[in-house]
Every structure is written in C-alpha cells, then in structure tokens.
Design a protein that fits this description.
- The chain is mostly helical and 163 residues long.
- Helices cover 69% and strands 2% of the residues.
- It has a single domain, classed as Up-down Bundle (Fumarate Reductase Cytochrome B subunit), CATH 1.20.950.20.
- The chain has helices at residues 2-19, 26-55, 67-96, 117-150; strands at residues 103-104, 107-108.
- A two-stranded antiparallel ribbon has the order 1-2.
- Helix 1 (2-19) packs antiparallel against helix 2 and helix 3 runs antiparallel to helix 4.
Length: 163
Amino acid sequence: MHWLMALVVLFMFGLGWWMVDLPQGAQRSYYFALHKSLGISLFLLLGARLAWRFKHRPPALPVHVAVWQQRLAGAVHAGLYVLLFLQPLSGYLSSSFSGYKTRLFTVPLPHWGWRDAPLNELFTEIHVVSAVLLAILVLSHLAGALSHVAAGQANLLKRMWPW
C-alpha cells in the first residue's frame, strides 16, 4: 500500500496544481471530478493501511539508527498520516460547501453541505496549506530514505519493498 499511495499522492500533487488553472468548462470539471475520486480513494486506502498497521507492527529499526533519527522518522510518519487524513477531508468539505455534488467515480456521495462561499474558501485554504505541508513531509521522508542509502544503510530500505 505504501507504493500505491505514494504514486497516487504524487500524481494528485501534479493534477491538483495543474487543474486549478484550467478555464471553466467540461475539461476542468472532468479533472476536478477525477481529483475528488482519487482523493476519496486515497482516504479509503489510508483507512485500510491504518487497519493493517494496527494489526502488523513494523519491524524494529536497526540499532545503528540514532535515537534522534528514530524520533524524527516517527514525527514525519505521524505528520504524513495526519495530513493524508486531512487532505481528502478538507477537499470533501470544500466540495460540499461549493454547491457541487461529489461522486466517487460514478457513485454519488452524500452532500452534507450547502452553497456557502466563506466555508468553501476556508476548507479550500486548509486543503491548499495541508497540500504544501504534505509535500514538505514527503520530501523530508524521501531525503531521510536517501540519507540512509548515502550512509551505506540501504538494507534499511528493504523494509519498504513489497517482496
């Protein structure tokens, strides 16, 4: 699930920043609908991932990993989980107060909001700020992994491979 979520999150960053500059019309609506469906799918994957994580603890870090690195990695991972939860939630709430209904691909979802420009703007702003924070944490996560490779600790990365 790590790699599937990583690929979709990276795709969502690009799609999200690209689609907002599209002119009003069918193409923009299509990409917004795709972005919403993929965001909701990520939210569902996160739920599955958390359920898996509660039943399957990760292996202990090797002894040569410094305590400060372990704490920093734990903080980055916790931040990733929080933001991966906040992103689709804020996007869904923004959509709910935009006046547009949300679908998961073709399945209509409950519409809990009403047309309210200030609330839409609030949740949109939360969505944008948390996207920037998520991008920073993803880059931090990647930098941490690469630092272990540079330090000759590539075996630490084997914990993430699906095989």
